[in-house]
Design brief:
Distance between the termini of chain C: 46 Å
CATH topology of the largest domain in chain C: Immunoglobulin-like
Radius of gyration of chain C: 30 Å
Helix content of chain C: 10-25%
Number of domains of chain A: 2
Number of domains of chain C: 2
CATH architecture of the largest domain in chain C: Sandwich
Number of strands of chain C: 9
Number of helices of chain A: 11
Oligomer: heterotrimer
CATH class of the largest domain in chain C: Mainly Beta
Shape of chain A: elongated
Number of strands of chain A: 0
Order of helices and strands of chain A: HHHHHHHHHHH
Structural class of chain C: alpha+beta
Helix content of chain A: over 70%
Strand content of chain A: under 5%
Order of helices and strands of chain C: HHHHEEEEEEEEE
Number of helices of chain C: 4
Largest sheet of chain C: 5 strands, antiparallel
């Protein structure tokens, strides 16, 4: 019993009191005391569910800076909490346990950008050691935020991972899509073209790279 | 039970003030409150015992973060829930069938073989669902909560919960038909 | 294998009764109710020894608080990426964020230098507010490069996802026109920078 307890304890990642005091310090003076108290309660509940707390604090600070009414700040923070919950569920469905808070935050970002839960599940499943779920979901969210439709986003990210060259290739995708858009393509066309190029490279490693403008 | 909530707040505050031994009151009070939920989520009473014990210890570690000591039990539930969800993956490999039989066999009257077999079949099928699907099914059909109560407790919207539940119904039907 | 009919799912949810179902669905409804009837609802009792196990651990912690605090410190998962070069956007009237540092040989750098640019010839002052500076418009003013109407600021940021917007003349929140944009939850848009 004692041995099992020790093992279980080492696996726990609890938030010490110091971190909680940091949250209070960050909120002080940026939102009203009532909003701060509510946000800290939401943060405590979120932490108990294993979710990252920073996105909640950030959203509250943002609302305060933008001069938004207290009610709307609280609504927005609850919205972030709901997205974090949904992302955690999607990551679990993809089998990515134990969950790390960075992947959950990235999943929530992807959902906020406009991807659906099933897209997050698909992308999380496709992610691998060199292309962690956090980076995969961050890039996918950014592509969606650029205007690439969900289907093309999932295809492009999946093909890039499958082609498996350098981890930096994933992070380069938004810039490459932007470059193609600047040349007159729609975001969907740009993404589809890059996906085809990635697939062609993955399937025919010995051949010359297809004629494709470099960023 | 609501009359006890005031007492919970007093006990939590006492423990935070240094009276460690009083934590045992909370353990005694709530040891079995979510035992059935944990057993259904994890598929065995043994796993539930471990999960509930770990959750009480973790709740002690983080007691200072319990913003509303009068609502200790709701906050404790979230810690236990997180522990159950973290456990799912590890336990899938280890003999879930035996585990499911252990939960269903508890308290079965003799001679009701068919009922017992259907119960075991449903237990096994429940373990095949995703944790989220199993949880909403357990909270509604075992613990008897409404969708609104479940939503308030786990922080998910009612439409999302219904979507998960309906997917669970279909998957359960599929699992049980295969065994018919 | 067919799914349950939506009405049967409502039956399972307790929102309709078997009598509410059309005759053609009765059999399926009864099958569904049999499924629910097989649910195991007996209470589960855990061993009394559980309390002793918990209190043993709790007493250890009460006796040596600093040890447990160290063991339970949060694990931060830090993302390490190689800096890379963004493709510059070409439109002159658009604002962009450009990366300045060339790719470095060491594979584990965690910060990137970024230049923010806004074309705003009518503005008196322009500031940058985002997740990297607590959304404080006073923290990062942009510098005007003269009559061209171009305002710039250069920051070194950690790898990860950042959201930001420009604040023009202290009051107008303007997202970066050529950057990816997301809903900010307050009815406006934030720009996204993924490093």
């Amino acid at each position: 019993m004692t041995v099992r307890l020790v093992v279980a304890l080492l696996a726990i990642a609890a938030t010490p009191l110091e971190a909680q005091q940091d949250d209070a310090a960050r909120l002080a003076g940026r939102v009203s005391p009532e909003v701060a108290a509510l946000v800290r309660q939401l943060a405590t509940d979120a932490a108990a569910r294993g979710l990252p707390v920073d996105p909640l604090i950030q959203k509250a600070i943002e609302g305060g800076a933008k001069g938004v009414s207290p009610d709307r700040v609280v609504i927005a923070v609850r919205g972030v909490a709901a997205q974090l919950d949904a992302a955690a569920g999607d990551l679990r469905e993809a089998g990515l346990t134990p969950l790390d808070t960075e992947a959950i935050a990235a999943g929530a970002f992807a959902l906020n950008a406009g991807l659906a839960g099933r897209d997050v599940v698909t992308l999380a499943r496709a992610s691998r050691a060199a292309y962690g779920a956090a980076v995969t979901l961050r890039v996918a969210g950014t592509l969606t935020a650029l205007g690439v439709p969900a289907a093309e986003t999932v295809a492009l990210v999946s093909e890039t991972i499958r082609a498996g060259r350098k981890p930096g290739d994933l992070l380069a995708l938004p810039g490459r899509v932007q470059a193609e858009v600047a040349r007159g393509a729609t975001p969907a066309q740009a993404a589809a073209g890059l996906a085809r190029a990635a697939a062609a490279h993955a399937n025919a490693p010995g051949q010359n790279r297809p004629k494709h403008p470099h960023p | 039970m609501s009359g006890r909530d005031g007492a919970d707040g007093a006990v939590v505050r006492a423990v935070l003030a240094g009276d460690t031994e009083r934590y045992a009151e909370l353990v005694r009070r709530y040891r079995d409150r979510y035992a059935r939920y944990a057993a259904q989520m994890l598929g065995s009473v043994d796993a539930a015992e471990d999960a509930v014990q770990d959750a009480f210890v973790r709740a002690y570690d983080r007691l200072a973060e319990c913003r509303d000591p009068d609502k200790f039990v709701g906050w404790f539930f979230l810690i236990l829930r997180n522990r159950c969800f973290a456990e799912q993956r590890k336990n899938r490999a280890s003999a879930p069938l035996e585990a499911a039989d252990a939960v269903a066999a508890a308290g079965q009257p003799d001679g009701e073989m068919e009922t017992a077999e259907r119960r075991r079949a449903l237990q096994r099928a429940l373990l095949e669902l995703t944790p989220e699907q199993r949880e909403v099914f357990v909270l509604k059909h075992v613990e008897g909560l409404s969708y609104d109560e479940i939503a308030a407790r786990v922080g998910t919207s009612v439409p999302s919960l219904k979507m998960r539940m309906h997917r669970a119904y279909d998957r359960l039907r599929e699992q049980l038909k295969d065994r018919a | 294998m067919t799914d349950f009919h939506p009405l049967v799912k409502q039956l399972l949810d307790g929102e309709v009764t078997l009598a509410d179902l059309p005759p053609g669905l009765r059999a399926e409804g009864e099958e569904a109710l049999r499924l629910l009837g097989a649910v195991h609802r007996e209470p589960v009792t855990l061993p009394a020894a559980l309390e002793a196990g918990v209190m043993t651990a709790v007493r250890h912690r009460a006796a040596a608080p600093s040890l447990w605090r160290r063991l339970t410190a949060p694990r931060e998962v830090r993302l390490r990426v190689r800096p890379w070069t963004l493709a510059p956007a070409l439109a002159a009237a658009a604002a962009l964020a450009l990366l300045l540092s060339p790719p470095r040989p060491e594979p584990k750098a965690t910060t990137v230098t970024v230049r923010f640019v806004l074309f705003a010839p009518q503005a008196q002052q322009v500031a940058l507010a985002g997740t990297f500076n607590q959304w404080d418009p006073a923290a990062t003013p942009l510098v005007s490069t003269g009559a061209s109407g171009i305002w710039t600021a250069t920051l070194t940021l950690p790898a990860g996802e950042h959201q930001y917007a420009f604040v023009v003349d202290g009051a107008r929140w303007v997202p970066d026109p050529a950057a990816p944009a997301v809903d900010d939850g307050f009815g406006r848009r934030n720009s996204v920078l993924t490093l």
